[in-house]
Specification:
Number of helices of chain A: 12
Structural class of chain B: mainly alpha
Distance between the termini of chain B: 47 Å
Number of domains of chain B: 2
Number of helices of chain B: 4
Order of helices and strands of chain B: HHHH
Order of helices and strands of chain A: HHHHHHHHHHHH
Number of strands of chain B: 0
Shape of chain B: flat
Number of domains of chain A: 2
Distance between the termini of chain A: 32 Å
Structural class of chain A: mainly alpha
Largest sheet of chain A: none
Strand content of chain A: under 5%
Strand content of chain B: under 5%
Radius of gyration of chain B: 21 Å
Helix content of chain A: over 70%
Shape of chain A: globular
Largest sheet of chain B: none
Oligomer: heterodimer
Largest interface: A-B, 94 and 67 residues
Radius of gyration of chain A: 19 Å
């Protein structure tokens, strides 16, 4: 396993550079709401969702009701549904780590898992597990550090969250290169842009993901070539 | 309930619901040894579509009609994509575009 981690590490470097500062920012926010490193640790281990944990700080601060927490978390994280949907086949027969791999399916982990090809001498299931585990560790480390030392930290890190945007931009290129057919990628641009313009920043994502999936299903006769990977 | 147990129950609820959103597709559709053909199809076409969606998602709060008109974001994304097509080095593409973005928002576009 050590060897697998070593070989997988370089694939996860962009996430390392994203999760440490982002986790750190979460830790600072959490600590300023009166919750220390132990809370950061448990939240990052068991929730393990960036946007959700930022929301959770607000919910903790106002002492939100449980139905409210359920509803807001569900709406915020429903996008995960589409990640799982597209990984069902890839994660088939991945054995004992499968539950953990599903549990750890963040935006960034999904992006790496669905785009990176495992090195030749590493079993795919080990590769995906290692990506999930490494990313999880980065996130936990960043958030605990932020909650512990955030108040001592003065480095101007404004704009560092762009690392995630850049990661997705690079993975768009990777996907573009590895697929012959670019219609799915173009649908993936056009639909959310329209949805964003019409519905606004807070409500556009879930409808966009639904419409993208439905459109792709409708275009299946056209996009699917017999027995050939697109 | 004490503040402590309220906080614990909020965190636990969020953890459970988050895990559910990740497990639901597998609970619903992960049956048998072979995935149905429509699931396989989505496995091929969804990732590239979702990657584009995620990129747009990162830009959802950018103001394109005022402020900086999204210039720092658009320029730096173009740099990331351009560098990546040219050199194909993930770390270089991400590192250079992020540093440029930080310079933009900290020094140039204030």
């Amino acid at each position: 396993m050590k060897n697998v981690i070593k070989k997988t590490f370089k694939y996860t470097l962009p996430v390392l550079f994203g999760y440490i500062p982002l986790g750190f920012a979460f830790g600072i926010l959490l600590q300023s709401a009166g919750y220390g490193p132990i809370w950061a640790f448990f939240m990052s281990v068991f929730i393990y969702a960036g946007t959700g944990q930022f929301l959770c700080v607000e919910l903790l601060a106002v002492g939100a009701s449980i139905p409210q927490v359920i509803l807001m978390t569900f709406l915020l994280h429903f996008r995960h549904f589409f990640y799982g949907l597209s990984l069902i086949n890839k994660y088939k027969g991945t054995g004992k780590f499968k539950l953990y791999m599903i549990f750890g399916l963040t935006d960034e982990t999904y992006a790496l898992v669905s785009t990176s090809k495992p090195p030749k001498d590493v079993k795919p299931s080990h590769f995906y597990t290692a990506i999930t585990l490494l990313n999880h560790c980065y996130w936990i480390t960043g958030s605990v550090l932020g909650a512990s030392f955030g108040s001592l930290f003065t480095f101007n890190s404004k704009g560092i969250d762009f690392v995630m945007t850049a990661l997705f931009a690079v993975l768009v290129v990777e996907q573009w290169k590895s697929n012959k057919n670019h219609i799915p990628a173009l649908i993936g641009f056009a639909v959310p842009v329209l949805s964003l313009i019409i519905l606004g920043a807070d409500n556009f994502l879930i409808p966009a993901l639904f419409i993208v999936s439905v459109l792709l299903m409708c275009l299946r006769p056209m996009l699917e070539e017999k027995g050939e990977r697109l | 309930m004490s503040d402590f147990s309220v906080s614990v129950s909020i965190v636990a609820t969020m953890a459970i619901v988050t895990a559910l959103t990740r497990f639901i597709p597998f609970i619903l559709f992960d049956r048998g040894k072979q995935a149905p053909s429509w699931i396989k199809y989505l496995g091929y076409v969804l990732p590239s579509a979702i990657m584009s969606v995620l990129l747009i998602y990162c830009l959802k709060d950018v103001n394109f009609t005022g402020g900086n008109f999204g210039i720092p974001e658009l320029v730096c994304i173009a740099v990331a994509i351009g560098l990546h097509i040219w050199k194909g080095n993930v770390l270089l593409s991400i590192g250079a575009s992020t540093v440029l973005y930080m310079i933009f928002v900290q020094v140039v576009f204030i």
